[in-house]
Write a structure and sequence with these properties.
single chain, alpha+beta, Collagenase (Catalytic Domain), Immunoglobulin-like, 4 domains, 5-stranded antiparallel beta sheet, 24% helix, 30% strand, globular, disordered N terminus
Length: 598
């Protein structure tokens, strides 16, 4: 009886109901693709500008080693296989046989630009991608190809394959980035990488990173990695498959870089392209065959955003209007729980109606995690614009969207503040409710003559003091200028871990804030973290009279730390924000609601 029940139930729902939901989602997806194509095709038909944007392939080697064996023929097979993969997936989604456009010579062979590096094998390592690219730029420019304006696949020979011992290791750059106009993907090349080996269950090879695996799985990982990094070069972020998409296999831009071709060995369903990413690629010049609006910077905006919780409190619907130029044909949302990068972000999507209205149904949320809903407006020329909205999910699965609701209420105020300054923002600040409190906090922090006190000269009757409203003896930050009770950017309200704070100290790493206390305070309490964003990692440190009394863990977006420090007899404190040893890019550290107490 129990076995029968478990066989008929999945995710707590009857399989019949799940099958019905999948059919409903498939019908909705078909309708969305049809509506998106209507917008796209209509825009392209007005003053069309057909043009072929090519993917350029570079084979780079060190000056003391040759190219891997048969590299030209193998790269042709690999890139053709990947081109066919994207074509099949776009066609499956209803966009027709759109795919990347490979540069081929008059005989139909893939054009591979061979470039010899300036250094020897020992001179390069994984982090040297930009150095290698810099060596390629003048060579490609001499051929009439500007790498800053094109999409490029850059293969290196920084791999070692022993065909007798069947061992492999590499030190190649293995990453990518790009958008609708340009992009670079770095990957490795090695003689055993060939689409003809994807189905091979034998022999077993010893991979330096993945251990003992079949030759076929080895090829799945690295050829899949090429397809995955190409996605990044085309502007796609990570995401995982939606529940209704799991029947297709593993999302290419999630963990699908390791499952590409698994179905050829009967080891799984392989990799696929999510609907959200098919929607995004449909307008990419590589896929559309159009260069209309290629040089146009997109203008996009969201308005009338509202969120409504489901009856059980475990999912929500986001509604709003989107407008843009070039026109917006789709809205994609990434439901990204904190931790794990963005690999575990599930996607939702919608096509706006004639008035720009759209609705996103956000479910399958991760319990016990703060998260961000990243909204992306897809423009008809291939460009995107977007914004992020924080939320949190309790351990019982119920969703807290208060921060998101407050953010929506603050939107006109923050837009006016960013465009016209504090004086104009006063006139549109919310009059009551939580949004009013946070608007007032931002205006207080932005005021030219904001009120502050000397913490070393306060009356004993003052029992607590927000440290952000105390006069620092020293203040310096790693980006822009010191700021208090607000962030020095358009998203000015201090928010971290899905919550908003009325007080706080902006401390982009590396940062130092020192306060003289004259032994008059007994405790310092508060939190620390980064605002909701993509990337960044910091470590927060508190020193009392030069002695370290608090050090946080390495914190990224979505995670906060707490501190409660004894200050009895302490003359001075220092709040230090470190870059966690990985550079200070996006390290928007914030001391959250720090408070002195007697």
């Amino acid at each position: 009886m129990h076995a029968t029940r478990s066989a008929l139930v999945l995710f707590g729902l009857p399989l019949g109901l799940i099958a019905s939901l999948w059919r409903t989602d498939a019908a909705r997806a078909d309708a969305d693709v049809s509506a998106a194509r209507t917008i796209l095709d209509g825009w392209q038909a007005e003053a069309p500008e057909p043009g072929e944007r090519l993917l350029h392939v570079i084979a780079w080697r060190t000056n003391d080693r040759g190219f891997p064996a048969a590299h030209h023929e193998r790269l042709d097979r690999i890139m053709t296989h990947i081109q066919d993969f994207y074509r099949r997936e776009m066609e499956r989604h209803g966009f027709g046989p759109r795919s990347i456009r490979l540069d081929r010579d008059a005989a139909g062979r893939l054009v591979v630009h061979e470039i010899v590096g300036e250094g020897a094998w020992a001179d390069y390592d994984g982090p040297d991608g930009h150095r290698i690219r810099k060596e390629c730029v003048p060579v490609m420019r001499a051929k009439g190809i500007d790498m800053d304006r094109e999409t490029v696949m850059l293969f290196t020979n920084l791999a070692e394959w022993d065909s007798e011992k069947l061992t492999f290791r590499h030190k190649s750059p293995y990453y990518a980035g790009g958008d609708w106009r340009r992009g670079t993907a770095w990957q490795l090349d090695s003689p055993e990488l060939d689409t003809t080996n994807l189905a091979a269950k034998e022999p077993l090879v010893q991979d330096g990173q993945y251990g003992r695996i079949s030759l076929g799985k080895h090829n799945s990982i690295f050829i899949g990695g090429i397809a995955h990094e190409l996605g990044h070069a085309l502007g796609l972020p990570h995401c995982r498959e939606r529940l209704d998409e799991e029947v297709q296999g593993t999302a290419l831009m999630g963990s699908g870089n390791r499952t590409y071709g698994d179905e050829l060995r009967g080891e799984g369903k392989g990799s696929f392209l999510t609907l959200a990413h098919a929607l995004r690629l449909a307008s990419h010049p590589q896929f559309s065959g159009s260069v209309k609006g290629l040089g146009t910077e997109p203008q996009g905006s969201f308005a009338d955003l509202a969120v409504e919780l489901a009856a059980d409190g475990k999912s929500f619907r986001l509604t709003g209007r989107v407008a843009g130029e070039p026109p917006v044909y789709a809205v994609v949302g990434y439901l990204d729980p904190a931790g794990g990068g963005d690999y575990d972000a599930r996607t939702v999507s919608a096509v706006p109606d004639a008035e720009g209205r759209f609705a996103l149904d956000c479910a399958a949320l991760v319990a016990g995690r703060t998260a961000e809903l990243r909204l992306v407006a897809c423009h008809a020329n291939g460009a995107t614009t977007g914004r992020g909205e924080p939320y949190a999910v309790a351990k019982d699965g119920t969703v807290d969207v208060e921060t998101m609701q407050v953010a929506f209420g603050l939107a006109p105020f923050l837009e006016t503040l960013a465009m016209k300054g504090p004086e104009a923002a006063h006139g549109v600040a919310p009059a009551d409710g939580p949004a009013a409190r946070f608007a007032a906090a931002v205006l207080r922090g932005r005021a030219a003559g904001r009120q502050t006190v000397d913490p070393a000269a306060t009356a004993e009757s003052l029992k607590t003091l927000a440290l952000s409203q105390a006069i620092p003896a020293q203040a310096k930050v790693g980006w822009l200028k010191p700021a208090y009770d607000h962030l020095p950017r358009p998203e000015a309200v201090i928010e971290s871990g899905g919550r908003m704070f009325e007080t706080g100290i902006y401390a982009h790493a590396p940062a130092l804030h020192r306060y003289d206390l004259a032994g008059k305070w007994r405790r310092l309490r508060g939190e620390c973290g980064l605002p909701t964003q993509s990337g960044g990692s910091v470590v927060f440190v508190i020193k009392a009279d030069g002695r370290e009394v608090f050090r946080s863990a390495k914190l990224g977006p979505g995670k906060t730390g707490t501190y409660d420090v004894d200050l009895a007899g302490v003359q001075a404190i220092e709040l230090v924000t470190e870059d966690a040893g990985d550079g200070n890019g996006a390290d928007w550290g914030v001391w959250l609601a720090p408070e002195l107490a007697r």
